[in-house]
Amino acid sequence: MKINDRVVLNSSCELRVFYYNNDPKLLDHDLEVPELGSQYTIMGYVPEKSNKLRKDEDSGDFENYAYVIRNDRSAELFRVSRSKMLENFVLAE
């Protein structure tokens, strides 16, 4: 899965809302449980302890980064670990 791929939620899970800044008040990220079948677009990657969104796939090794995905209906952004992405999402057809 890479940037601009569309994915579909195929098993229930909690998603963490993604915030662009590192405001300490936002460290306890809000959680949301979306509907099965919800569609998302992969927007980029983010390091484990940062909210700095990376969009250039050629600029480094992203294996330890989380995905940032955008809900195609609400435009809300979520931070999703690689393991959760592989377990709960499939590429859209």
Can you give me a brief rundown of this structure?
The protein is 8% helix and 32% strand. With 93 residues, it is mainly beta.
Question: What is the strand and helix layout of this fold?
Answer:
Blueprint: E1 6-9, E2 15-17, E3 31-32, E4 39-46, E5 66-71, E6 77-80, H1 82-88, E7 89-91
Antiparallel strand pairs: 1-4, 1-7, 2-3, 2-6, 4-5, 5-6
Notes on the structure:
With 93 residues, this protein is mainly β. It has one domain (6-86). Helices cover 8% and strands 32% of the residues. The chain has a seven-stranded antiparallel β-sheet. A hairpin with a 5-residue loop joins strand 5 and strand 6 (77-80). The longest helix has 7 residues, at 82-88. It is globular.
Structural class: mainly beta
Number of domains: 1
The portion of residues forming beta strands comes to 25-35%
Summed over residues and divided by their number, the pLDDT gives a mean of 84
Q: What's the number of extended β-strand segments?
A: 7
String of helices and strands: EEEEEEHE
- Side by side, the strands of the main sheet go 3-2-6-5-4-1-7
Unreliably modeled segments: none
Largest β-sheet summary: 7 strands, antiparallel
